[in-house]
Amino acid sequence: MRQFNLKNYDIEGLDGKREKVTVPYNVRDTLVNILFNPELRLGAKDLLSRDDLSRKILGCQEDTVLLEESEYQQILNAVNSIKGYGKSDIEFVKRVLECPQVQVETKE
Known about the structure:
By secondary structure, the protein is of the alpha+beta class. It is built from four helices and four strands. The radius of gyration is 15 Å and the shape is globular.
């Protein structure tokens, strides 16, 4: 299993007056949007599978979510397929590429 950090982080941006402001980077929304990016040219089966994963991510009440290896691979493939990242995406991409594996024990 992989433990993905869903907690937002702050990035610097510019307001309407071109002054620096700090705004939150919405990790959950970015992750879901990347899963459905048109560049991926998803087929029907992949679309439905990613819908299940997006519901899991958006419905998670914690700051981290446990991902099956197949779910992590969907995210990893999406992140590696998309072009055009910017400086504000660095932390997000690091979280995906460096997503830690964790051992999970089943309760009896």
